[in-house]
Structure formats: C-alpha cells, structure tokens
C-alpha cells in the first residue's frame, strides 16, 4: 500500500487524490478551466470539450454531463445562490463573447452579450469575457480579461449599469483582469479582480472605485474562491495560494517553480506531472468539509482533490 502524499502547512495539510472523478467511456476533458461545488458537495467541472460541464457526486462518481454550446469557449465558471435562495451557474464564454446564466442542470435563464459601447469595442478592439460574479444585490460583474481589459456591471436582469477599469498599471487600471469575485468577509462587499497581467489582486468598491492592491505572494492569480475567512487562488505559475482574512499568506499548495518555465508549458510530457505538484492551476473550489478541488489548464484536463487533514 502506497504512503499518503500530504502537502500544505501545519494548519492546512491535505492528502493528495490525483485524477479525481471517474469519467465514463466516451467522455474526455478538454482544457479544464473552472470547477465549482454546490450545497450538496456535488462537483461541476467546466472544460472545453463537447461535454463542457461534467458533474460528479461528492465521492467522485459521474452523475451527468452537458453544455455542448460551450465547447471551445469554456472559461469563467461561477456558482451563486441568488436572492431567491436557489443556486445557479454563471459562465463566461470566450468564443461567443457571452455571459450565460443557467440552472444547475443547464437550462438557460439569461444571456448577456457585448456591451453597447462603440467607444470601447469595434472590429479591431474585441470583447472577450473571461469571468463573471454576482453581488449581494444581484448585480452581475463581467471581466473582459482577454479583450480591452474593462469590467462591466449589469443588474440582475442583464441591463447595463457601468464600465470601469481599462488597460494600465496605475490604481483603477488593469492588465488582463482574468478573474473576478465578490469579497464578503469585511464590513462591506468588495470586488476582487485578479489583475493577472500586473501580478496582483486589485480591490474595488461595487461602484468601481479603486480601494487597494494585494500584491504579495502572487505571480499570476487566475480567480478566487472564498471559504470562510479565507480565499483560495489558483496561480497559473504552478501553485494554489491560500490567504487569510487580511489577505496574508497562509500557504502555497503544490508549488512547482520549474513547471511554468518548461518548454511547451502548459502541455508538458505526461512523465513530468507529479500528483503533489501543480503545473497550471486555473480553477479552484472548496467543499463543505474543507477539501480543495483544483482544475488545471492542460489540453486533456487534470483534476486533483486535496482532502483536508483534521
């Protein structure tokens, strides 16, 4: 019997379960971009294949798959309990330049296309949304992470409210705002933006005003998952980062400072990969037991479960 692989720190130790979630015959992953967990600890994996949403129960047993319309464009993936008390999925589709809201079974409820802003977008200046999140009042925020680097705000029905951000490194400006989420850990909700091209988190008010930077212990933050007083970040440069309530470092998980420097990265030879080291983390979530799930940006996908040690 092989020995358990444990990673993390004294306060955050995890057993590594590589290749978690058994895919049935006929289903294969594309790039695994996002991963979320619902109130019953079912896990949803978002990837670029024709089965772009693959659902497992908490034990890793396959339940269902759907989402052919997201093939090739699967990117931002967000689960949110709306004010009606029901959980919904939100998608950012890079191919169709579209934000989509669905039920947990894939019924489409809302679509938001390119903002009607001819001053920002035209045939040369593309709109490519990479992530989406929802504020407590139902407002929807979209990060144009691969286009012109703006952040757009809509109400719960998809009506346009405002735009902020734009290319730059000064306060209020961003370069490749890859991920976006709402921080509810403090006295008032805040918007966290993974300002990946600047190697930092930028924090905004919900009205789009710059508040502060978080720029320590980060390389290329992709997105966010808030769990209790902590925030978990997939860092594309080969690690998952855990920060405390004050955004101070708790630990890096599975760090490999050689992976992203390899020729051909992120699609490295299979012989390179190790269960306890990450290469290109792109999505992360945490279940009710504190277990961490990591999705990596690799052409045929890679899902790892980290089982929290008590």
What does this protein look like?
Pfam families: NHL. Keywords: Glycoprotein, Repeat, Signal. NHL repeats lie at residues 161-207. This is 6-bladed beta-propeller. It comes from Paenibacillus rhizovicinus. Strand 9 (98-102) and strand 10 (108-112) form a beta hairpin. This protein has a five-stranded antiparallel sheet, with no helix packed on it. It has 310 residues and is mainly beta. The chain has one domain (6-308): Neuraminidase (6 Propeller). The protein has no helices and 25 strands. The mean pLDDT is 97.
Tell me briefly what this model is.
The chain has about 300 residues and is mostly beta strands. The chain has no helices and 25 strands.
Anisotropy-based shape: globular
Report the total helices: 0
SSE-based structural type: mainly beta
Helix content: under 10%
CATH superfamily: TolB, C-terminal domain
Number of strands: 25
Strand order of the largest sheet: 1-2-25-24-23
The tally of structural domains comes to: 1
The CATH architecture term is: 6 Propeller
Q: What is the radius of gyration computed over CA atoms, rounded to a whole number of angstroms?
A: 18 Å
**SSE string, helices as H and strands as E:** EEEEEEEEEEEEEEEEEEEEEEEEE
First-last Cα distance: 22 Å
Approximately how much beta-strand content do the residues carry? Answer: 35-45%
CATH topology: Neuraminidase
Helices and strands in order:
Blueprint: E1 6-8, E2 13-18, E3 32-37, E4 43-47, E5 53-56, E6 62-66, E7 74-81, E8 87-93, E9 98-102, E10 108-112, E11 131-134, E12 140-143, E13 150-154, E14 160-165, E15 177-183, E16 190-195, E17 200-204, E18 210-214, E19 225-227, E20 230-235, E21 239-243, E22 249-253, E23 281-286, E24 292-296, E25 303-308
Antiparallel strand pairs: 1-2, 2-25, 3-4, 4-5, 5-6, 7-8, 8-9, 9-10, 11-12, 12-13, 13-14, 15-16, 16-17, 17-18, 19-20, 20-21, 21-22, 23-24, 24-25
InterPro entries: 6-blade_b-propeller_TolB-like, NHL_repeat
Pfam families: NHL (PF01436)
Protein name: 6-bladed beta-propeller
